[in-house]
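Suppose a colleague, Dr. K., hands you the sequence of a protein chain of 241 amino acids and asks what its three-dimensional shape might be. Before reaching for any lab equipment, you can write down a predicted structure in token form. Begin with the sequence itself:
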Amino acid sequence: MLDFDDVTVRFPGGAGVEHLTFRVAPGEIVALIGLNGAGKTTLMRLALGMLRPREGTVRVFDRPLTTLPSASWAAVGALIEVPLAYPELTVRENLHIACLLHGADPRRLVLDSLEAWRLQGVADRRFRRLSLGNRQRTGLAAALQHDPDLIVLDEPSNSLDPASVIMLRDQLTRRAEHGAAILVSSHHLDEVARIADRVLLMNAGRLIGELDSTGTDLEHAFFERIRQDDELRAATEGVPL
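The predicted structure, expressed as tokens, is then:
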């Protein structure tokens, strides 16, 4: 569903990501974790064609992004950084438009989505008047209601209360069981460990391996791996700690 082959992109000032290689298969949930500035959002923008790599190839549905038909994006669901919505339209209207943009029938899906994300009480409220949690739930509903084959979510649990986090967890596990490929970034290690088949570690623009999510102290294991990588880069590349 999603394939990175030695992907590199650099920005002015030296920031960027380099030599990213990984795959997300159908029915698999892959979590991406790293400190702020590690490059997680850049990776996800590359996955969605919002950025183009300087080197390497990104494939979606086994097609390079450069040759992917525009109609194929209807089978992708994404939320990057903040929910994409029209602030002056209601929750219901935003979900309706999201359905149309993905080639789906809004007559049934919008009602199902409002119920699934418990948004009935704010369905006719303008998006700009929502709380942060309800904005996030609206964004997630819009990203997932058309039953996409590939799901890319950047920090989807931001602003969610515990009940909404459980809803998100249930939605993702159910969709993976039905064959969707899911890439999700998060700072909540314990939460992603509950659902992820693999947890990828990212540091300083590079993927540095996987985190064993069966351990009892994931945060300690995570920070120890980051410390080790920083020390290795300092020793081999002269990068200051």
